[in-house]
Design goal:
heterodimer; A: 230 residues; mainly alpha; 6 helices; elongated; disordered N terminus; B: 494 residues; two-stranded antiparallel ribbon
Chain lengths: 230, 494
């Protein structure tokens, strides 16, 4: 161990947790009666609300970055295999319901923004109504994607039929899985009692909306890729 | 050990299929659960919040989830070795997916904690280099584990749903599909830096602490850590010089890979500059840190050869790559992990590891790893046997070298028993450490009592007044300024 001799008073400084100019607080094996005096343990507890709500937004941005990387890698695979099989590539006929689904998803983003505006204006009832509508539109989109799969199967195009169909099923399935996560987030914000939660309704709604809009944008990108890549 | 014996007596013992499975098990365990998990998950989860003055990680629930995913993954990888090949591979792949999820959650947690949970006064310029390294590693992990996940998802789709994303073409030489190779190296090359970056941070931190000097050109060292992260993400293509890339791409990847030498040199200069004319305390932790520098330098030099595509194509075989890779990534990183363990052991367990046993362990291991991996470089230049233990090319000199390597491996592995004895003996009977700050270090974790309280700093969030490496500043009997002690308190002793 380090053998540097140190003066007792300096030893006290570096062993002291607070570092400030006040009384040394009582911690662990410190002994002593430190602290700022007054007030019971419960009085000094931090408030229920989270003191750093920004971290939820940060985490969501990072999660979106990771998801973006995941889909970009799949996109790279699509582009590479498409170029490698330029002559042998056999495209698929995109089911018409995809356009309806896209409209539904875009509408859900719009209703989400309306809901957030209502929350900003403290109109909780209006917020809940629009939020529920967004959730329903999200569920309708997922069901619509299932219908698109059925339409494709009716054409005799299955996952293993050709590379184009494999990519179609994989992209739509993975997007749907991520969107289901978004629906869970919407349900959480819509049903949770925020009076006792660490995070405020406003922060939760904001973070959920980032994800939802991201899923919306991601779908537009994937649709364009699948459409023009045929 | 089993692998070395197989190489020494090829044909006896395990069948070739078992040998490949053993190689996979060795690689998976070491790369995922030692080199990736120990410096980042192991030390990072404990010391990151302490060093930035936070009471906990930003998302404790994610920490728990990541922990259990990693354990599940470890169990899966271990069990997969004992199963039939096909079932084993499926379980292995699921385990890797679980590990990737855990790593992504960890990355999000680390980045958010550093971004949003720092104590007052803990500006980016005051962050310890360990925190910088964990931060950059987390960003890199966040990006690359998405690549591995995407590759695994498509492979699962091929196995279970019958798609053909990775069709195996059986020609004269069976080769992996180019797409898989690209993704694998995109991920795996960057993973080298995920393993090494925290080690850079740890070594810089320890060198400054035990040299009693500030980190030399600290800001350049921070930039170098960031540059290693950025370049490490971009150089994957140099593994595929012989895999039908566009004729111009080897040149680009060669340049990128060679340019990694610049930040690596900056870090090396920073370590040597810090050590220069310092009053070095040769504790076991410091010995392992210096050992890391030595191994990193030796391994890094051989890496310069591998960055040249024309040299790789003509002169170098697998043994050279194995020697380089193990020296710079496996062993060097393990030295940094051991250095960190010796350094933080008193704060983790309230007892100290035995220094004498530690030093014996260090010297035997240090000599041993050089005796194992330097001859491998020589072997790599001597013959071009492509399949490790399966080929017996090379003649007498080559055979003698292989026997020497095996003997060195036996001695080195035996020396690890000393470490295990030291670890467990110290855990229960080691010298109790009553001081909070036995190494006289500056960072915030040493301001807390040992054992660390459950809520770290509790309500007494520390205020940070200065950078992390103010050593060599005479102040009464002190030669360092802790980050958390206010100037007013220090003024009394000037």
């Amino acid at each position: 161990m380090a053998g540097t001799p140190v003066l007792d008073d300096i030893e006290l400084i570096i062993e002291d947790i607070s570092g400030g100019g006040g009384k040394p607080p009582s911690r662990g094996d410190d002994g002593g009666d430190g602290g700022d005096g007054g007030g019971s343990e419960s009085d000094r507890r931090p408030p229920q609300r989270d003191s750093s709500p920004k971290r939820y937004s940060t985490a969501m941005v990072l999660a979106m970055l990771s998801i973006l990387m995941f889909f970009m890698v799949l996109t790279a695979a699509f582009v590479v295999l498409r170029i490698q099989n330029l002559q042998a590539w056999s495209g698929i006929h995109m089911p018409w319901i995809l356009w309806v689904n896209t409209a539904v998803l875009l509408s859900s983003s719009a209703t989400l923004e309306v809901a957030r505006r209502k929350l900003q204006m403290d109109r909780l009832k209006g917020f809940k109504r629009m939020w529920a509508l967004t959730t329903i539109l999200g569920a309708v989109f997922i069901c619509g994607q299932a219908v698109a799969w059925r339409q494709l199967a009716a054409q005799g195009v299955y996952m293993t039929s050709r590379l184009a169909s494999s990519f179609f099923y994989v992209f739509t399935a993975l997007h749907a899985v991520h969107l289901l996560g978004g629906i869970c987030a919407l349900l959480y914000v819509g049903l949770r009692k925020f009076e006792t939660a660490r995070v405020s309704r406003f922060v939760a709604a904001e973070v959920a909306s980032y994800y939802w809009h991201f899923m919306d944008g991601l779908w537009i990108f994937l649709l364009a890729l699948l459409y023009f890549g045929q | 050990m089993a692998m070395r014996l197989q190489v020494a007596h090829s044909g006896s013992g395990s069948t070739s299929e078992r040998y490949v499975a053993l190689t996979l098990l060795h690689g998976s365990l070491m790369v995922f659960f030692v080199l990736t998990a120990a410096p980042q998950f192991g030390f990072g989860y404990f010391f990151l919040p302490l060093q930035i003055g936070a009471n906990e990680m930003a998302f404790p629930l994610l920490s728990g989830l990541s922990f259990w995913l990693t354990w599940f993954s470890l169990a899966g990888v271990a069990v997969s070795f004992f199963l039939p090949v096909r079932t084993g591979m499926e379980l292995w792949l699921c385990s890797v997916i679980a590990f990737s999820f855990g790593a992504i959650l960890t990355s999000i947690n680390f980045c958010t904690t550093v971004t949003d949970s720092r104590a007052g006064g803990m500006s980016l310029t005051r962050l310890p280099l360990t925190v910088w390294a964990w931060y950059v590693t987390a960003v890199l992990s966040l990006l690359i584990f998405g690549i591995l996940l995407a590759a695994c998802v498509l492979l699962l789709s091929d196995w279970f749903l019958g798609t053909q994303f990775f069709p195996l073409r059986t020609t004269a030489t069976v080769s992996l599909p180019a797409l898989w190779q690209r993704w694998f190296w995109f991920f795996a090359q960057a993973l080298v830096y995920v393993a090494l970056l925290p080690c850079f941070g740890i070594v810089s931190h320890l060198v400054a602490t035990f040299s009693r000097r500030p980190v030399w050109v600290e800001r350049a060292a921070v930039l170098a850590i960031c540059a290693v992260g950025v370049l490490g993400f971009c150089i994957w293509g140099f593994h595929m010089f012989s895999s039908a890339l566009n004729p111009y791409t080897p040149l680009v990847f060669s340049l990128l890979a060679s340019s990694l030498g610049i930040p690596a040199s900056v870090l090396l200069a920073s370590w040597l500059g810090t050590l220069w004319q310092a009053e070095i305390r040769l504790t076991t932790a410091m010995l392992f840190a210096i050992g890391f520098i030595s191994l990193f330098l030796s391994g890094g030099l051989s890496g310069l050869f591998l960055a040249r595509h024309e040299v790789v194509a003509v002169l170098i075989s697998d043994d050279f790559v194995t020697g380089h890779f193990h020296l710079v990534m496996g062993v060097a990183a393990t030295f940094a992990i051991l250095a960190a363990l010796f350094f933080w052991f008193p704060k983790l367990f309230g007892r100290s590891l035995n220094e004498t046993l530690g030093k014996i362990h260090f010297w035997v291991t240090f000599a041993g790893v050089y005796c194992i991996f330097m001859p491998m470089h020589w072997l790599g230049l001597l013959d071009r046997a492509r399949f490790g233990g399966m080929t017996s090319a090379g003649g007498q000199g080559s055979d003698a070298a292989r026997s020497f390597i095996t003997a060195a491996a036996i001695v080195t592995i035996a020396a690890q028993v000393i470490f295990l004895i030291n670890f467990f003996r110290s855990l229960w009977y080691g010298k109790q450490e009553h001081q909070r700050n036995p190494w006289r270090a500056t960072t915030l974790e040493w301001s807390l009592p040992t054992p660390i309280p459950d809520d770290n700093f509790g309500e007494h969030t520390p205020e940070v007044y200065r950078g992390a490496y103010l050593y060599g500043v005479p102040l009464g009997g002190l030669d360092f300024l802790p980050q958390h002690v206010s100037p007013e308190r220090l003024a009394k002793f000037r």
